[in-house]
Amino acid sequence: MIAANAARGEVVVPLAGTPRRLCLTLGALAELETAFEVDGFGPLADRLRSLSARDLAFVLGALLRGGGEAGVDVSSIDFHDAAQAVAAAFSAAAR
Length: 95
Hints:
Distance between the termini: 23 Å
Low-confidence stretches: none
């Protein structure tokens, strides 16, 4: 069983039938800023408000890598599950 480190802002969510750890780390934020060609949290937050499916897959991948879950193929993950997982990770980071 995978346990989340709440102090670190981690969440564990089921994705494609497997529990996965997600975490919004500084590295994940840097990946997102680079991918979306923005500087800073404000512009990144604005950009995250309108994600395409490709964008959502990238965000999910960055959060999985932040949680130590490198190499997960996000292409088979249900859109709804992916969106909920991303929302849970951002919510946990805000606590």
